[in-house]
């Protein structure tokens, strides 16, 4: 069963960006809290992130919410995003299974066993009405409400092609260009000394370390 940070890892880039864009536009306090929590995970002051332009803030949030240590924050972010931005998906799922809720998609009493037939027909109906990636995200977050999730739902997810993560085809490696024929050298009277000059390779700077250094300078 995937954790919330892994769900973010598997999202399309545009979907992950849209999660935080929605929070920035519609749930400002949650957006600020997300910055504060993720910055604390990286031992950075929130002001360091808040000084970035909006697009860079969101890109930073997406990058850091995918880290293993951000699991709890990722869960809270996705729960609120689904609840506020996609209530019809949540209520449709709960209504299909006959689970009582508050009218907005929040349910307190979820049965230990889900009706297999209702589950299958409900998920099929959701896939007709919503983006499969959105349905997959919600079902993944729903599963996290129990340590091992619901076995019947796990089996259904694994057996439904629309709920699988699409993987990009691996491109075949390009053939190496043929080496040009070496020209014959005229015999030399004296042996020449070969000198090998190695090109210096500059290692890329550690982006996270740079951020931490910038944060320290800002103090």
Concise overview:
This protein has helices at residues 4-10, 13-26, 28-41, 46-50, 54-65, 71-85, 87-97, 116-129, 132-143, 151-159, 207-218. With 219 residues, it is an all-alpha fold. The longest helix is centred in the middle third of the chain and has 15 residues, at 71-85.
Describe the structure.
- The protein is mainly alpha-helical and 219 residues long.
- The protein has eleven helices and no strands.
- It has helices spanning 4-10, 13-26, 28-41, 46-50, 54-65, 71-85, 87-97, 116-129, 132-143, 151-159, 207-218.
- The chain is elongated.
What Rg do the Cα atoms give?
A: 26 Å
Uncertain runs: 168-179, 185-206, 213-219
Shape, please? elongated
Beta-strand content: under 5%
Average pLDDT score? 84
**SSE arrangement, N to C:** HHHHHHHHHHH
Largest sheet: none
Number of strands: 0
Which class do the helix and strand fractions yield? mainly alpha
- Helical proportion? 55-70%
N/C terminus separation: 41 Å
Total helical segments: 11
SSE layout and pairings?
Blueprint: H1 4-10, H2 13-26, H3 28-41, H4 46-50, H5 54-65, H6 71-85, H7 87-97, H8 116-129, H9 132-143, H10 151-159, H11 207-218
Summary tags:
219 residues, mainly alpha, 11 helices, disordered C terminus
